[in-house]
Amino acid sequence: MVRVTFLLVAICIAICRATEVADSAETFGTPNIISRRQWGARPPKATIPALKIDPVPYVVIHHSDTVGCNTQAICQARVRSFQNNHMNAKKWDDIGYNFLVGEDGNVYEGRGWGKHGSHSVQYNAKSIGICLIGKFTNTVPNSASVRAAQNLIAYGVANNKIKSDYKLLGHRQTAQTSCPGNALYNLIKTWPHWSEKP
């Protein structure tokens, strides 16, 4: 009887662990990353330097504070517009973010992995900056956008681009700004690795 009970407990533990792994794989899949070439990026004005720390210990979340997008064509146009603004009006060498996420569920490559950002002054050399496209002051991003952002972070950890013990921050924690909007900020506070203190 003891052997049967032990065997049943062992089987239950094995099933629970397998379910956890399956759930994790379903929750965090591979992000669909639209390359710079695909969205029609301009070349940078200068070579973008490599990050000082790689893998990075921080992920900084932003919102674009603009109208959102829910189709690939509209999102690509938004990303091109952001790049033009950053390069022309702000005089930066390229779009400031490492990645952008649309409500179409796609991730758009900005500066990409391993590159120094221009999105959060004190953290540019040691973080990945992810901008969710839209204004998220009063409403949260849709589930496709949230899932894509979380998948991107998980992918970065799995591929040694983001440290496994990274800290997740909202832009407002690193600068005097309301970014990433109250609704999105409150949402990311529920995500794994959000840190009250940078």
UniProtKB/TrEMBL annotation:
It comes from the Eukaryota. GO terms for biological process: innate immune response; peptidoglycan catabolic process. Residues 31-175 form the Peptidoglycan recognition protein family domain. GO terms for molecular function: N-acetylmuramoyl-L-alanine amidase activity; peptidoglycan binding; zinc ion binding. Gene3D superfamilies: Peptidoglycan recognition protein-like. InterPro entries: Amidase/PGRP_sf, Amidase_domain, Peptidoglycan_recognition, PGRP, PGRP_domain_met/bac. Coiled coil: none annotated. Disulfide bonds join 69-75. Residues 46-181 form the N-acetylmuramoyl-L-alanine amidase domain. Residues 1-18 form the signal peptide. The keyword Glycoprotein does not apply. Keywords: Disulfide bond, Immunity, Innate immunity, Signal. Belongs to the N-acetylmuramoyl-L-alanine amidase 2 family. This is Peptidoglycan-recognition protein.
